[in-house]
Design brief:
Layout (H helix, E strand, L loop, with lengths): L11 E4 L1 H6 L15 E6 L25 E2 L2 E2 L2 E3 H8 L8 E5 L6 H15 L4 E5 L8 H8 L1 E9 L3 H7 L10 H15 L4 E7 L5 H14 L2 E6 L16 H15 L9 E2 L5 E3 L4 H10 L38 H11 L15
Parallel strand pairs: 2-6, 6-7, 7-8, 8-9, 9-10
Antiparallel strand pairs: 1-2, 1-5, 3-4, 11-12
Length: 357
């Protein structure tokens, strides 16, 4: 057992490597001068998360659960007081805090208490990445009353079949598709339009059409989708699977932007015989201008005070040499690459395979 396993929430939290670097708790430089604007906190417990999501390094099905890695980067443990003392110093540029729950019986009470504490001590807007499997009706209201101004739900998969395969019954996990969507519906009521979001991971075996329809479902509820590209995580049960093709992810990013900002709807879009997007439901010149702006290909997440996306997770779903979600404004060479990727239509990948699923 590592020393960190004796340091558990609520007194200790895991901090994303990017946040630790931003606060000077870890050394390092960001590629191309990227800056993080969200304090990403992850609750931590002995034995780790008790869920069994096949693509996640924190999954209880991946061994002891005592890893420091999550979404491909290190998440070192610090005391809450040490983190807050660093945040109180000026110059970090943080515009939001996000508390991520894990599957643990105490996660809700600890998240609620930490939300109240952060709201009182820091004055930063607070988002909660909730775990629907450990909350009940009324708990979202308690989180809002504690100070959270936004809630997000990591549905992750675009279809119920994929959810069950990689997170639910077939994976031996506790999560249920219907429960996750009921939580999103409740978040729409408790937090209101544009104040809740849904994490979606492209490249888990869904078609482009299925992902677009799910993005539209979230938007029809009043929320926005925070897109990730599947990139295999070492230590997960899908560590040998292929990453989401850049071309597919670029089309999903573009469709997500159009839907979330009311520029087009899923019903306006058209697909080929393999359900790949071939028409985005927007006039060609306007679409070209939008692509040239680069905005659809930047990280999507909860907003900050000054930035459209505070939770920009630098290189969280792809390495610096293969950027999937840009944590900064795209430059001319980036846009040139994105346009080339958008035009590629490779064969539709089959559903990911994992022994025992």
């Amino acid at each position: 057992m590592t020393e960190d396993m004796n340091k558990t929430s609520p007194d200790y939290v895991r901090l994303s490597l990017a946040a630790a670097m931003t606060l000077g708790l870890r050394s390092g430089l960001f590629y191309r001068g990227a800056r993080l604007h969200c304090l990403n906190l992850l609750l931590t417990y002995e034995g780790g998360c008790r869920a069994r999501c096949a693509y996640c390094g924190l999954s209880a099905g991946n061994g002891s659960g005592e890893t420091e890695n999550f979404i491909r980067v290190e998440w070192p443990v610090f005391s809450v007081e040490e983190v807050l003392s660093r945040v109180r110093l000026s110059g970090h540029g943080l515009e939001r805090a996000c508390i991520s729950m894990v599957m643990h019986p105490q996660a809700l009470s600890h998240a609620t208490g930490l939300t109240r504490y952060l709201d009182r001590e820091l004055g930063l807007p607070v988002s909660i990445l909730v775990n629907p499997s450990t909350i009940r009706e009324g708990d979202l209201e308690a989180l809002r009353e504690a100070g959270a101004d936004m809630a997000t739900v990591a549905v992750d998969t675009a279809t119920e079949t994929l959810f069950d395969r990689y997170r639910g019954r077939k994976a031996g996990g506790p999560h249920r598709w219907d429960r996750y969507w009921r939580t999103l519906e409740e978040a729409a009521i408790v937090f209101g339009r544009d104040k809740f979001g849904c994490h979606l991971i492209a490249g888990l075996g869904e078609s482009e059409k299925e992902m677009v329809q799910t993005i539209q479902r979230v938007r029809s509820l009043g929320g926005r989708s925070h897109m990730f590209a599947f990139y295999p995580e070492p230590g997960s049960r899908l560590e040998e699977a292929a990453a989401c093709a850049p071309s597919r992810f670029r089309r999903m990013q573009l469709a997500r932007f159009l839907i979330d900002y009311g520029l087009a709807a899923s019903g306006d879009m058209e697909y080929d015989e393999q359900d790949r997007l071939v028409c985005f439901g927007m006039e060609a010149s306007a679409l070209d201008d939008l692509v040239e702006s680069g905005r659809p290909f930047m990280t999507s997440g909860c907003p900050g005070v000054m930035h459209e996306c505070a939770c920009n997770r630098p290189f969280g779903d792809g390495p610096p040499g293969d950027i999937r979600s840009y944590p900064f404004q795209l430059e001319a060479e980036d846009i040139h690459l994105v346009k080339k990727q958008l035009a590629i239509y490779s064969e539709q990948p089959a559903a990911l395979k994992e022994p025992g699923l």
